[in-house]
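new request in #modeling-help
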Amino acid sequence: MQSEDALIAQLRELIETQLPHARSLTPIGDDGAAWQPSRSHRSVVTTDACIEGVHFRRDTMSLEDAGWRSMASNLSDLAAMGARPVLATVALGIPPGARAQDAVQLYRGIVEVSRLHRCAIAGGDVTRAPVWTVCIAAVGEVRTTHLKGRAHARPGDVLALTGALGASRAGLHLADNVNVLSGSLREEALRAHRRPQPRVAEGRFLAASRNVHAMMDVSDGLSTDVARLCARSRCGALVEQVPVAPSAAAMAQARGEDAQSYALAGGEEYELLAAIDARAFPYLRARFQKRFGRPLLPIGHVREGSGVMVRKAAGEEVLPATGWDHLRE
Amino acid sequence: MQSEDALIAQLRELIETQLPHARSLTPIGDDGAAWQPSRSHRSVVTTDACIEGVHFRRDTMSLEDAGWRSMASNLSDLAAMGARPVLATVALGIPPGARAQDAVQLYRGIVEVSRLHRCAIAGGDVTRAPVWTVCIAAVGEVRTTHLKGRAHARPGDVLALTGALGASRAGLHLADNVNVLSGSLREEALRAHRRPQPRVAEGRFLAASRNVHAMMDVSDGLSTDVARLCARSRCGALVEQVPVAPSAAAMAQARGEDAQSYALAGGEEYELLAAIDARAFPYLRARFQKRFGRPLLPIGHVREGSGVMVRKAAGEEVLPATGWDHLRE
């Protein structure tokens, strides 16, 4: 590995040629990066770590994919707040034996998804680490009146998702079951696993409606994340249907597993979950379909009380939180 | 280790009882944290990772100290920009076998130094990791006219430090040479190693003067960091004297080493290096002394050309960059 200053110069070159600088962002090279926030907005900040062996395996994705995912998870958090990405910082831990070009490769993935969502890279930190370690903090802006969170879902609200779930887990299984899926299903699963799309435009669209009362991303699995939304909003929920991605359904069938569990426990996906005023839902769904060419998918309702139930043929059952717990070993 | 949600609740409790919330910061629990930046200021962001085995050893400091240091290095970066800390996010990686109380302990150090400098903790991320991994991103604010960086040092400027160097390295050696120092020297060295003070007030004071042209912290060692300042400002420098902390001088003598090398190569210290208009320097130094009860220490001058030289008895010599390179193995 070359020296820190030499690597940083290479990364800076990559960033500056690939990304438009967010407004008057100071050039990289100072102790911090400065920018001028806009006056009518709130700033939003989020952070997410992505660690080799915990969040990704080198045998199921390239370093470029890992970089993409690290940034995508932060952009998804901004999306869940209804915010427009402004800039991000990257703290990169590089393992023994890695080459400078490996670090550049990982940064390439970071830069690629940042460019799609017009997020500047405002510098960061490189250091040695036992394994590849990517800690990103992202800053966005949201009009004060559009700021959403998890706390204001109301009984009666429709719970809706910006897309079907489970494809990322199907993609992970492809590493071990290479011949299970083919064609577009295979594509869908691999893409969801390696290049998940943060729903930035969808988040801003939903945040602009005052009929959307709460929003979050379901990056830790739907069952866990619905429970978190309900706990924060001090209410309960009934899940009536769970939209499963076609590749997840096919993979579950091939492995003799329950397709719904792919969606409920999946994780590492970035669809948004929104609590939407029931009377406004049909109109908002129609506008969403027109704008994005995909449906806004209702999955159930918020209700009084606490706890998340799921509708089964035999009646309601408790929905256990089977999603991702980052401390489970 | 308990579940992620349970640990986060414990950490939130610690943060909310210990830290005043920065203005209208949203409570922790959403995908991100929102705040209202002030209108006349620029926002500044920085990030720094602190990794067990790379940045600290468990046998030379407690987890609380490690938490303090992780946050202090970020606050120091804000100080170098002349910024007032506003908030920080914390991504915490927890190794196998660690207990929840270990994570709380580490957070306690983070919270303690944050409180001293009125920095809110705006949430973060917890996850498993091979070793203790603390990635912090800190956001501050600086009046647009006060924003400093590394790029505008001018030939003729006095280079000055906010304090003497080398004590942190002396403190690190104490772990291996427990009986070398005693009394106040020992205190100084251990404190510098475990609880370094970011120079936030000093940074804001210096930033408010238009006679301070450039500023940075010397967290990677004076020789490396002077070279970085000069490279960014496209000029050279002559270092005429290097202020060595008393504990560093004593430790160097005890180990038969060169005392200056402790200051030049030390690292993990948070004094600020400023390039100050030579005519204004005496007045600024007097005001600094009056305000902080400590001297502003001149170490040399900026000059035309490139490269950093050091004055020796026999004449000028090249000052090699012997500071910390985060990628050196």
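bot summary: Chain B has two domains: 4-145, 158-318.
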